[in-house]
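FORM 7B: Structural annotation worksheet

SECTION A. Query
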Amino acid sequence: MSELIDVIVVGAGPAGLQAAVHAVRKKASVLVLGRPHKSAIYWGHVENYLCVDGVTEGKELLAIGRAQASRFGVLFAEEDVLGIEQSDDHFELRSESATYLARTVILATGTSKNKLKVNGEKELTGKGVSYCVDCDANFFRNAKVAVVGNESAAVDGALTLLKYASEVHLVAKELAVSEELAGKLKASSVKVHSTWVKEIIGENAVEKLLLEDDSSLEVEGVFIELGAKGAMELATNLGVQLDMETFSYIDTNKRQETNLAGVYAAGDIAGPPLQMAKAVGEGCVAGWYAANFANKQKRHETAD
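SECTION B. Predicted structure
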């Protein structure tokens, strides 16, 4: 267990980096959790952002932002966050290899949920195909299930499903997780298949997976977990309120505060337009108020 950090930012994109810069400048200790290449802007090109002349690669801008934040004293851990829980007056964030304690949390991870894009996926979504282990695991008690994915969300999901399902398979062409998480997987009863899914088969419900190595798996459920733990998963499990119309982004006020004291959101996760300019602006606001919140907490702790 680590020491108590004032502000932990989940997400290393424009919103997260700007939030970190503004928070650390207000004398708060700041840690950013996340991998830069998971940001949507990393693979894109930017030409409509103020003061950027011509076309600039997104990964170049993120590298500059990270270096700037580091100079100010921001710490980084390139790990995915697997879960967040509130405990008394602080938050516990579980990553691939550690648990971190924070006075405040800023969610800045974006919202995309990657699809597998194979036959049967769309037709059987909600009929055995799921994108959220934490949401749907309970529906597969004593069933045979599979998780598809190479990264932390898939491995963590497979380990979680061991508490519910009678048999758990992980379809992962090439694992890309920390040594600690890989060790937990190896020590578990999850059956790992080093291949990929070719097709999801079933009439009115999932019946089996056809794999690229020409084998098949008879399962009742398949969880598609591509990449990091979804921002919405982290938010809803924590009790953060979503917008009441579409339930597709986190509801915030003008201070980027959520319904939970000490939890802020910025960038794509806080709704459209999905633009870097908006993300940076909201990151500034979230970092500012999160640092204020943490500093006020510290003053109360000292007074007590």
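SECTION C. Observations
The radius of gyration is 20 Å. Residues 276-303 form the longest helix (28 residues).

SECTION D. Sign-off
Analyst initials: ____
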